[in-house]
């Protein structure tokens, strides 16, 4: 008996450990550990007014424009409780350089903010209705210069993701400021809205006026509702791996590189002691040689470090005796695809460690070499310095033929598009003057993605031979499922087809423009007529999908799929992970069905036979 | 007073810029030739507003005399008063995916996009398309090379679209019907017609309803050509044959059947009945390098003396050549001649204007062209003067009958010494392009001139069926002393009248099979070298450029230079002496090698040439070895493939 129990315990421990280990492994490749502000209670904050509380979930009543508690529990910080005096919420922890990320939900019209070091404010305003780029947009900094940002706000009641990379002011030993506080980047809903802004002095409303090296996070008091969750951060105590004794060697290009040893054994043509790793400057455009840098890092602490390499050609890196990058190094390598960043994490011990970095420009394409290092307390920074000409940079960025909106009409552009890592060939992107955009697959008959922001980057279509023929949206996209939008199901439990089923005749009929050049897409499925149009609104950011059908036996439509779908008090559907609202209230005779799909949900409707019209709003 | 002069000067400049001959004389490859041609056919610019990127993909004239222009950026522009000095442009449609053709019928436009054939209808007559109707859509694999051209519309309203092959190192057909010619009814019913296409940029329906298309050199395609296409034909590149299993395929030929046996197409066609050989070959680099549109002269004599003949555009060499064709024993064949060169960019499309001038639509983005502009629109206008040219060349069973545009000097025309003839062919194999093979001299045995001096009957020894016959008459003049504007023609002999070749065969005067020696090309490391001082790799980037602007070497060093060709065309490297004009000079000499070009790797025998490589195909490389010159200076590394030398050059700095 005892033995069996022991064996059971033993086995379950193994299982538990390997399971945890597997999770950690996955995390290892993608990103570094962050610290989190646990929102199980208010212990992370100094005592404040009674309106601040912890709950499980908050949602919006869109009719009354109020945030309401939707689930009791833990994980969400909010100020929904009534209180006579609303006070700021101040963290106990103080920070210097910090990389901060969180999700925030705003109520309609709220004006709040978060003060880095209690001094430098990032606006958390409900700017969803702003039509122009303004200084009041969410993510902007409260500052002295009139800097406007693009409005990347989502509708009140939707969780919005904010990422701030901040550098605290630097002082010398006498306490004099030698460097201003600095916002490296501010990203709102995956769109970069600000970059490299220096702040001369604390913002209006800051609770401290003197600038210092460390300060708390402060969430501004507000009498309108606001909620936070998933607050995580990295304190970036260190700024560099301090490479020293760097020797650069130009070597003969190899057939293949197996490891560091064989790389270092290659014949050296010339060598030089250098202060920086600059392969694009140190190696001539001559493609036959490669350049190797060897030196020592001063690893600041025992921790995980993440390295990212982006190369056109071959790249190699090893630290200590661990090889972390080795690709395309053989002299015959050349790629036809757009090079994408390679990432890897590695655990390093504090102290001096040798490194080897090599670049082999064996591709006849553009030369590019970017190498970044990041650590648990080390801010991401570029290990390599490089100067490219303006023209070279433009080409490497492939961002100089950009299509813009027109003020009084919709614009369209057909192209290839990437959707969930697949290339789709019969696509059209549509951009409304209100900066609402979407892409549609004409062959499959499927809404692919929506986004807020500029129209599309057409450089990959019209520069040189346009090898990709891809257009890229000028804003962070919200993807849709990409399966056929319309199908014939036997019943409401039939699986939604992911490819065009046998025996179904799909005919593309093209599209027609209205007076504003807004297209209506026409198609036929087994002779049933289906029309789709996506109309913007001038009052808020939404697309109204107008579906017109003429079918013999009715047709099913999949509105969207998601990790989870909630029905809000006013009947709006909240689609999680897409983070959008679907307002179906305009259709009295059709009831949407939420059904399971694997671990997630689908939102589908059945459109009756005959001539039908279905309209619903997609709001984000 | 001063102001008046200023005004006059400005007016002068402005008016010149409207009607000026647009040939940029510095950039034209053969300046003298272009100048001669302009006496008879003038090139005139059609002004394009600065903010319109008019990369022409299609041209069509509307019923109310507006010129519709479809562009590679997916726009259709309508140009009002297109032949006037001040045309106005209006955007008719935008947002399409690469419209590479345009047709106008029943008050609407038709243009093929990458993935579909579309009809563009202006319902409310406001000058903008409101309805873009999908007539027929076809699958794509996502490869950049899957261009879709068309439509051309026949008299019954059927539309024809041409599918360029997929290209990934060589030609493939990675989506259904790539490398095919498709017929589509206005109701959207599709019938596959023929396959074997690689780069079928030009397609035309002759006045009698027959189909002709133009092809681009590539794998299996020795040189560009014009082929008569019929339903069920296989015209050369096997990539499209993977779809012959489809129930509606008009031929059942399988790709495995086609073997790369190095026979000529003509010989192979005797074994493979579906294989349709060209009607007229266009010898590579002489009469083009990337053949594009075909336009019949249907002006009824208002465009000069070549009524009924085909005018064929070329993208790479920015010129138009002329093709005379005839049907012998039911088979099309004929002769090709030069016509007009010096256009501003790469020619893609040609259509007639109402005034019988020719609109020439151009783009060269991605490939480069002799005409250095990225895009353009010009008109070719007959000045009314008739050039002295070989108007037609017809096959006899023992020779050729030539018609001239003006009476010939009879004494010179009778003298057989004035005629040079040779026959040659191209290999039919899976490699990219072909050198000229099996070249033999032929001999004009007798030349009989008609009474009116307009016709000459040549009796020829050494004609060969299935071969291209080169005829050159460089010294012949007309009765009033004019030399031939184009004195060389190339006749593709598929058939002879009567069916039996009666030309005496040549037993003597054979072209010697001496092997070409090129001592300046060293492809093996010399055994005397103990080491190589510097190894250099030179690559290609799209748009006819090398990837390095300059290379530095030390004098007397031992150098290994490797050319890595990552492009989808042929290239070479030639190291030349210093001099600002040297690349242009050697480039011109390379072009003038004519038929000998390929064999000589396009490297002329000249003191300006120090070292060179052979022709390097796509995805290939070649290393050459040389000792750097002992005199420092700025030398050159240039690709002398015809048309490339302008942009494909790297400075070789010898220190």
From TrEMBL, chain A:
Transmembrane segments: none annotated. It comes from the Bacteria. Pfam families: 3keto-disac_hyd (PF06439). Keywords: Signal. Residues 48-233 form the 3-keto-alpha-glucoside-1,2-lyase/3-keto-2-hydroxy-glucal hydratase domain. Residues 1-22 form the signal peptide. This is 3-keto-alpha-glucoside-1,2-lyase/3-keto-2-hydroxy-glucal hydratase domain-containing protein. It comes from Wenyingzhuangia heitensis.
UniProtKB/TrEMBL annotation, chain B:
Residues 90-218 form the DUF7133 domain. It comes from the Bacteria. Residues 550-646 form the Sulfocyanin-like C-terminal domain. InterPro entries: 6-blade_b-propeller_TolB-like, Cupredoxin, DUF7133, SoxE-like_C. Coiled coil: none annotated. SUPFAM superfamilies: Calcium-dependent phosphotriesterase (SSF63829), Cupredoxins (SSF49503). CDD domains: Auracyanin. It holds the Pfam family DUF7133. This is Azurin/glucose/arabinose dehydrogenase. It comes from Wenyingzhuangia heitensis.
